[in-house]
Design goal:
By secondary structure, this protein is of the alpha/beta class. It contains 26 helices and 21 strands. The protein has 6 domains: about 110 residues, Response regulator (Rossmann fold, 3-Layer(aba) Sandwich), CATH 3.40.50.2300; about 90 residues, PrpR receptor domain-like (Rossmann fold), CATH 3.40.50; about 100 residues, Beta-Lactamase; about 170 residues, 3-Layer(aba) Sandwich (Rossmann fold); about 80 residues, Helicase, Ruva Protein, domain 3 (Orthogonal Bundle); about 50 residues, Arc Repressor Mutant, subunit A (Orthogonal Bundle). The radius of gyration is 32 Å and the shape is globular.
Length: about 650
């Protein structure tokens, strides 16, 4: 155990416990130092079952608000504890960064991570020009077996979790931790938020109890000798005649089951103890009363168990509602192009109505962002915003998720049934993403819900009225799907009351700089780079603007992170070799085969396109490069490929 702060814990600071292996703890030390002023942080080494035992000990002592951990430890803690656990997430950016480091050591890299392997790495290995062998583990023994397999196969560099790095070091191999300071910092931020929310909920719970204590629950207070010094009417009625004065009487004599002598002697607080008294079930709290650190009395509160159950249900409902909240607004949408402003103007008009909206556009253009903004700008703002991806669930599961089910509807159904997402979105907005991929059978049920404004749970017998605004989105050509009888025409017209078409990124190229710059700046800052982002990106802006971005904003964010990793290797801007970026970002370095047609369909030959661009530009290479949408250096390379000959001067 290695507490970072001194024995003095500042009042009110969240208490965080960082649980993990030595390697990740050592990596986290700079981040721990950053957060020392805003939280009391305890670092503890432990893993698997040992970690759970250590964590439970701190919970029992009331010494922690939130845990921070990674990989297998985080999974074990989340499954075994009721205290919040902030997980250090392994991002693709982290893994890419680790693989770049590994590439500098060896051309064959082993990866051993908790959980599952990552299929997308097959594409990354080609970009990095390295051999990758992936393994995943669930237990410590699994991890050792994976490690041994890689060691026997001759791998000298292994990327993975703390456990894997420790095994590598013991075997004399190169072990690289897959996590980054940015991921740890993000987990600490999440932990602070979890601690804040937990304390907020605890405060509300205590406030509720205070109201119950003062208004309706039975309360009695005694002095050091167990003599009653205060009693409220509900307790007076429980102990005897309401008109009989009880102040000064010994509580143990009046009712031994309610005695506070053990509390007076031990000074320990007893909370949430179940008690059967007066033919009722109660929840009992016994609390010592202190003055200047000395016990001068004790208080007993009897809470009616029925009221506690009702209050607990209300709190859980409140917590469930907070899970369905829209985060984005129109102010969070970046860009000033005419196409984007027109889309925002239409969306703002739609937000003032309560009609259904169909948002269309290519994948990655930000359909859910616009849906959230419409919700937050409308009359249903502050109500639930429930999003469901219709393409991510199998048909049977999607039906139960949307409409819910009653108890016994099918084998394995939850006891008491479960409400569906339509019910969860009641009075708010239901966002149906990828509606074009919804099975036909569910399209029929959805159409009926939109018409009748009521749903029927699976296995249910009574319809449930709902008040929901539906916003649907798709990148599919619904008109073609209707012709192919894969999408219902009547559902299309029901959803297509208001239609919002979002432009692809290539249609608003003037917004690209404003989108790329903050993403690269954030990544470089997280990685500790001090490069001037705008100056660093200036030589790339022409390429970024010329690229067509088939993946739109989602692809832009991904490629921006790759650019940040590339820039990370340079301490000074004058040292940046931008041509080397072609290895990591080949999209920005088109070849003649990927050249777009600048002169129209009359020039099917790519070489002729280049020649025609030069002729139309009067031989001015800068003008020709602009027409082609490429840099001057790329145009020069293409001119060499097509054997371009400068025209001799006239005369």
């Amino acid at each position: 155990m290695s507490p970072i702060n001194s024995d003095f814990v500042p009042t009110g600071l969240p208490r965080m416990c960082f649980l993990g292996y030595r390697q990740i703890r050592e990596l986290a030390m700079p981040v721990v130092a950053e957060y020392a002023g805003v939280a009391h942080i305890e670092l503890v080494d432990g893993s698997f079952g040992e970690a759970l035992e250590i964590a439970q000990n701190r919970i029992d002592r009331g010494a922690v608000d939130v845990f921070v951990s990674a990989g297998s430890n985080a999974a074990i803690l989340r499954a075994g504890l009721h205290i919040p656990v902030a997980t250090i997430q392994l991002s693709g950016f982290d893994l890419l960064q680790a693989l770049i480091k590994a590439r500098g050591i060896a051309a064959r890299v082993g990866i051993v991570m908790y959980g599952e392997t990552i299929p997308e790495l097959e594409a990354v290995k080609d970009l990095l020009n390295i051999e990758i062998s992936q393994h995943a583990y669930q237990t410590a023994e699994d991890a050792r077996l994976c490690f041994e397999a890689l060691r026997r196969a001759g791998f000298e560099v292994i990327v993975g979790s703390s456990l894997v790095v420790e095994l590598s070091e013991e075997a004399g191999l190169h072990g690289l931790l897959a996590y980054s300071l940015a991921s740890i910092r993000k987990a600490f931020d999440d932990a602070l938020e979890l601690a804040r929310m937990a304390r907020l909920e605890a405060g509300r719970y205590e406030q509720l109890h205070s109201v119950l204590h003062n208004l309706q629950d039975a309360v009695v207070a005694v002095d050091r000798q167990d003599r009653i010094i205060a009693i409220n009417p509900p307790m007076q009625q429980l102990l005897g005649d309401p008109g009989q004065p009880l102040v000064g009487e010994v509580l143990q004599t009046l009712e031994p089951a309610l005695s506070l002598r053990s509390t007076l002697e031990s000074g320990r607080q007893e909370r949430a103890v179940a008690l059967r008294f007066g033919q009722h079930d109660w929840v009992v709290h016994r609390t010592p009363i202190r003055e200047h650190g000395e016990i001068v009395g004790a208080a007993l509160t009897l809470y009616d168990a029925r009221n506690i159950e009702a209050a607990d249900t209300s709190l859980r409902v409140l917590q469930r509602r907070r899970q369905y909240a829209a985060r984005h607004s129109f102010d969070s949408i970046t860009g000033k192009s005419t196409e984007l402003r027109d889309a925002i103007a239409s969306a703002r008009r739609f937000a003032r109505t309560d009609l259904n909206v169909l948002i269309t556009g290519e994948s990655g253009v930000g359909k859910e962002v616009f849906a959230q903004a419409i919700h937050n700008d409308g009359v249903r703002a502050g109500r639930p915003f429930v999003a469901v991806n219709c393409a991510s669930f199998p048909e049977s599961l999607l039906e139960s998720e949307l409409f819910g089910y009653d108890e016994g509807a099918f084998t394995g159904s939850r006891r008491g049934g479960k409400r569906g997402l339509f019910e969860a979105a009641h009075t708010g907005t239901l966002f149906l993403d990828e509606i074009g991929d919804m099975p036909l059978s569910l399209q029929t049920r959805l159409l009926r819900v939109l018409q009748e404004r009521e749903i029927m749970r699976l296995g249910g017998t009574a319809p449930i009225p709902i008040d929901v605004r539906v916003i649907a989105a798709t990148h599919q050509p619904l008109a073609e799907l209707i012709e192919q009888r894969r999408f219902r025409q009547d559902l299309y017209y029901r959803l297509n009351t208001l239609r919002l078409v979002l432009p692809p990124l290539r249609a608003r190229r003037e917004d690209i700089a404003a989108l790329v710059t903050p993403v690269v700046a954030r990544c470089l800052k997280d990685l500790g780079s001090t490069l001037d982002v705008q100056r660093a990106l200036a030589p790339l802006m022409e390429r970024l603007t010329a690229y067509d971005w088939p993946g739109n904003v989602r692809e832009l964010e991904n490629l921006s992170e790759r650019i940040a990793v590339f820039l990370l290797q340079y301490a000074k801007l004058q040292d940046v070799e931008y041509d080397a970026l072609e290895h990591d970002c080949p999209e920005l370095f088109p070849t003649l085969d990927t050249l777009s047609d600048p002169a129209g369909p009359d020039f099917p030959d790519h070489a002729e396109r280049v020649r025609e661009a030069m002729r139309r530009a009067g031989g001015r290479r800068g003008e020709a490069a602009r027409k082609l949408g490429v840099s001057r250096s790329t145009l020069w390379r293409w001119l060499q490929e097509v054997n371009w000959q400068e025209s001799p001067p006239a005369g």
